[in-house]
Amino acid sequence: MGQKQDELLKRIQKLVKLNQKLFNENERLETSLNELIVSYDHLKMKLRDSGLGDGDTDDRATAQKFNMATVLFANIDGFYKLTDGSDSQVLMDQLDNVLIKFDSILKKYKIQKIKTIGDTYMAAGGIPVKNITNPIEVVLAALEMCAFVKELSRKNGEQVWHMSLGIHTGPVTANISGKRKISYDIKGDTVNTTHRVQGVGESGKILISVMTYELIKEFFVCEYFGKLPVKYKSDLEMYEVKGILPEFSIDEDGLLPNESFGTKFKLIQFTDLQEMILDKLEKELPDYLYYHNVKHTVDVVTEVELIGWAEGIDDEDILVLKTAGLFHDAGHIIAYDDHEYHGTVMVKALLPKYGYTEEQINRICEVIMATKMPPEPKTLLERIICDADLDYLGRSDMIPVSNTLYKELKEQNKIGTLNDWNKLQVMFISKHAYFTKTAQSLREVNKQMQIDRIKELIEN
Question: Is the pTM of this model over 0.85?
Answer without folding.
Answer: no
